[in-house]
Amino acid sequence: MTRSCSAVGCSTRDTVLSRERGLSFHQFPTDTIQRSKWIRAVNRVDPRSKKIWIPGPGAILCSKHFQESDFESYGIRRKLKKGAVPSISLYKVLKYEDTRDCRAYVTAN
To answer: Residue 103: enclosing H or E segment and its boundaries?
Structure first.
């Protein structure tokens, strides 16, 4: 099964062609604080519960949502720098007050 970028409105899929075009795909961090920063940045709402969306274990974001300065290069391979947070073309609809407690959701799962 092909995975898709979890950012709202992004249709990028993790395919051979996408990777040949230079896109990379990144799983949500396991570190609770860093993960909550990503969740806040993605700013997505669960359609059923109407609460903040919590990514599942296979959730990914494509490299389109990160600054070039967020990456380290190792030859032809590149990796996100520690502490990088997605910041480009992310859907903005929630207010900060709605997302400030997302760390509680992250630690509960």
So the answer is: helix 102-108
Contacts of 46 (CB under 8 A, 6+ apart): 52, 53, 54
Both structure tokens of 95: 């207010």
Task: Look up the pTM and report it.
Answer: 0.79
Q: Give CA–CA dist 14/71, Å, rounded.
A: 18
What does DSSP assign to residue 28? P
**pLDDT tens digits for 3-49?**
999 999 999 999 999 999 999 999 999 999 999 999 999 999 998 99
Of 54, 41, 53, 27, nearest in space to 90 by CA: 41
Tokens of 99: 């997302």
